[in-house]
Structures are given as C-alpha cells and as structure tokens.
Sequence to fold (669 residues):
Amino acid sequence: GSRQLSARGAIVTRLGSIEEMAGMDMLCSDKTGTLTLNKMVIQEDCPTYSPGETYESVLFQAALAAKWKEPPRDALDTMVLKTSGQDLSKCDVYTQLDFTPFDPRTKRTEGKLQGPDGKIFRITKGAPHVILNMCHNKDEIKELVDSKVHELGTRGIRSLALARMDDEDGKWRMLGILTFLDPPRPDTKHTIEMCNKYGVYVKMITGDHLVIAKETARVLGMGSAIFGADGLPVLGEGGSVPDDLVDQYGTKICPADGFASVFPEHKYLIVETLRKAGFRVGMTGDGVNDAPALKRADVGIAVQGATDAARAAADIVLTGEGLSVVIDGIIVSREIFGRLKNFLLYRIAATLQLLIFFFIAVFAFPPYKYYTANGFHGTGNFSNVYLNVPRQNHYCPKGYVGTSDSYLQSMGINLNSTYFDHPEMFKPGCSIVLPICSGSHSSQTCVEWPDFFKLPVLMLMLITLLNDGSLISIGYDKVLPSTIPEQWNLTRLFIISGTLALIATASSLLLLWAALDSNNPTGAFAGLGIPPMEYGKIVTMIYLNVALADFLTLFSCRALNGPFWTVEPGKPMLAAIFCSLVVSTFLASFWPEGSLDGLPVKGLALGTYKTMPLWVWIYSIIWWFVQDIIKIVLVKSLNKYNLFPDVKPDMDEWRKKAGIEDEGNNYKV
Fold:
C-alpha cells in the first residue's frame, strides 16, 4: 500500500495511517494552499482610506512590510515582491530596523523602517479586521471597510489591509486594501465530490474572512453552513484541553460545513472534538499553524509545498500538486482493508470448517457401525461380516489379533472366514475384529475399520499447505473499494465466516455419511448407481471434498454483497486457487494404494470405477452455490434489519440537534 501511494505522489510516514485512512469519515481541510492554489493574483482594485494614497503607493509600502532583500516567505510576500511587477530597488533607500514575521495568532506582519529623510515609521499588513482594529479612526472608517471586504468576499476576492504609524504621532492609520484572487485548485471540486461518494464528509477550516470562506465553499459545492470562530472552544490554562468538548461544542462543530477566522488552537480543538464525537478524522494543511491539528488527526496529510513543520507532523506527505491523490489514498487504503477482511473471513471459515467437521465426524460417524453384513459384492476383495457378536474394546480370545490369528490357524481354520463364519471360536462377550481387506484371497491383508473417522496427517498437511498458498495470493487480489468508511465489525465477521464454515461442514458430513453407507442397497450411493466404496477411497474422497470446499469458499468470502462472480479475481489469486484445486484433485484421484497412519488410502480413479472424482466435483460445486446463496441472504438480512451495525456517528442526528436544514450538500452521502 505504501508503495502504491508513493507511486501516485504520496509518501507515507506512518504505515498505520493507511488502515486508518480506510475508516476516515471526516476530512478537515485548510483553505489557503490546500483547497486553493496559494498562488495569489493581485487585482488593481485598491480602495484607499488615507489622503494621497494610490494603488502604487499602497503596493510599494506592502513591500516595505516584508523582507524584500530575501526570498519570499509565503504566498502573500510572493505576490507583493515577485508577481506585482514593481521595482524593488526603490526599497533600498529605506533601512529596515526591525521585522515581525507573520503570526497566525495575530494575522499580520510588521516592519519598522527609517526613511531617507531619517524619519522612523512602522508599516503593518494583514487581515482587514485586525488592521482596522489597530487604527485610531476605526469608528469612522469601519462601515466603509467592512462593506468593501464583504463585497469583495462575495466575489471570491481576498483582501490584505495595510496601515502605517509614524513615530511622530504614534497613531496607526489605514492606508488601503490590496485585493487578490487565490483560485481553487483545478481538482479540488472533483476531490470533494469523490469524498462525498466514498462517504467522507469534508469540512473547511480557515483563518480567512467568513465571507471568503462561504464564497469558496459555494464554488466548491461544500455547503453553506460556514460559521465564524465565535463560540469555538479554546485551550485552558497551560494549554489544557477542555473535558466537555462534545457536550459543549459538539452541536456547533460536528454538523457544520466549515469555520472561518479561526486560530491554530481552534483547528486543533475542532479536530479533537470530532474525534471524541466518534469521527475518524483526516486533516489536510500546509502551514505551521496547521501542524498541531495535523498531528492530532487520525490521518494528517501535508499537501505539496507544505512547511517543514507541517510535513513533520503529518502521516502522509503529498509530493504532487492537487488533492486528487487523497482520493487515491482512500481507494488504495480501502482496497487493502478489503483484502485484510477477505483474508480473515476465509481464514476463520476454513479453520472452523476443519475443526467442526472432524469434531462431529469423530463422535457421530464411527466407521465400524456402517460395515454391514452384505459386504462389498462384486469386488472379490472383502469378506462378509458377522454381526451377531457385540463389538467390545478388546480382542479375543488372547487379547490381541496376532495371537488370535495364530490360534485359529492352528485349528486349521482359514482366517478370511474365521472372523465372520466361526463366532463360536471366540469367548462370549468378546468382539469380532471388523476388517478392511485388500488383495487377493491368496495374499489378502485385513485391518479393522477404525472406531472413529480421521484423515492421515499427510493429507491434513497438504490441505493446510495449499490453503496457505491461496491465502498469500489474497494480498494481490482485485477488490472493489467500499463506498462507505471501513471499520472492524468482528461480530458480523464471525457470523458470516461461521455460516460459510457450517455450510461447507454440512456438505462434507453428508458426503461422509453417504460414503460410509455406500454398501447399503437402499443408500444414497446405490440410488445414484455408484458402487460400494472401499475404505481407502472413502478417505481420499473426504480429503478431496474438504479441500474443494475449503478453496471454493474463498470466492464466496471475496464478494459479500452479491454472487461470487460479481468481483473479478486477480490473476495471482486465480492461479494459486487453480493450482491448489488441480494438485488436490490429482492426488485424490491417483493416490497409490497403501496405508498412511494405519489407515488404508487409495486413489478415487484407481480400480474399475474411475468417475468418482467427477462426482465429488459436481457435489462440491452444488454445495458451493448453496453456500453462496445463503451468504447473500444472510448479508442482505443483516443490512436490511440493521443487525450488528457498525458503530459510527450519526450526522443527520447532529444536524437535527443544530437545527441545520438539509440543503443537498455534502452531508447527504
């Protein structure tokens, strides 16, 4: 995942953020430099508020309020010093005595200068409402300034106010307002639309004027519920975070589309409030003032051109222009999460299938009880069984088979008939050994049918080995990214995987019963025209069925909301499953006749009846479809009746509490 994102222009500095991005349901974003290009285009419209001031004079004095001999420190300085086209050599006749760089808390810069006439003065530039409050005649010009800023804001034009204070009178006077545009990034609106599509709410958090924020939100389709900083939480003494953020401020913060005129601590506390309300929050930003919020967010994203502080605080650093890589990150992270979920579903289902099958088979299907008196007609390899002597847990007459055989042979009785035709040779209450015989009458080998069903260890190891190969391929599988934020719902995961396991187990148990009962003239196999099965073939048949049910279950785990064929498998996974199925089928079909762990084994295709592997495949595929249909019904039922739902905040409920009407904005995902 990290490699995929780096190829798309996103460097992951904390690997855990990929998983958290899959569950991100709230994206808070700074405006300037994130939603917008941060490339200021200065406008000639420059209202002035001091006699004799013009656009050129205000622009020149804006350069004096910067470090004109050094490279620009931010986008505003770049606009004033580089893109405005003015001759900066005129500034060299002034001496800069002191300079205060931009502070996001004060929202202005200030320079102290000495002119060629020796007079000392100060120039400050910054947010209009901040500069206005510094001026001695603010009451006289407040209405003019506010109306102009509002009028500019409705057109999406930003404002930069300048004021000057001469040491002679010590009073700040407003020089004028520089106007400029900071257009949105070309892909920002599409990014917001895609976030909405994938269930991520987008919230703008900016230090700009409220009118500018609302106009930008309108252009980008973010909704109109944009509020100022009034009423937002603030840090307590010593930088402590209030304990009652959600109770006190949740109704104001959670349902809003954004906030304007905020300070860095507001951004931090907005993110903290959202996290405590249950949202999984992402934060994008580029400046020093964004660093605390980037650090606090579940997923901090520093955009291209971000400051060192922002990059250090972020979990993901974007190296290319635009925010479209955020959508790539959401998609990639959800694909990874989907693969992890598929892995766990399959791993749990496969494990439960084996455990439940053998647990039930051991206690419910003892093979010796299914060995009937009719024997296996027509094979010539099996003896008739005498059933009138109850089976015990010991052998007669001497306690073990070898001595019994020697004793009977000494009596001149053929072993192949003695066990079944001469019960009088055994002491009362003792058992008859029920054998599995193979070979010809002249060299026949007989062993008893076991007390309980089991598979040889080698077969179990083969199932596990091939299963692990299929599991590894899930990491390269194709998945459809979820359209809603992902989160772990272990209850649902165990219900679905357990259901898949139970269906696969039922198919194997039913087949085991039918196979053990195959010599019953009225049994299922006889009804299908399948001849009675040797015990060695029963073992290999169950091995094949368990393996097929195991591997085919993976396809059902991959597509929970529809049939297994609705999600195309990746080529590596398809190749791994194909190889596993081929190897399992070949081994079960042509396993050499012999013994493993004291159990007879024999390939299903050996002997006179060679189509048993095909029957097992047909049987397994039928149950696979049954399994998939039940899975679809189960998932749809869980969704329809909202059973065991994901725990997530209810945005509609927050909006109702806040009294915000639905305007078709990004909250209707």
Remarks:
- The chain is about 45% helix and 15% strand.
- The longest strand covers residues 157-166.
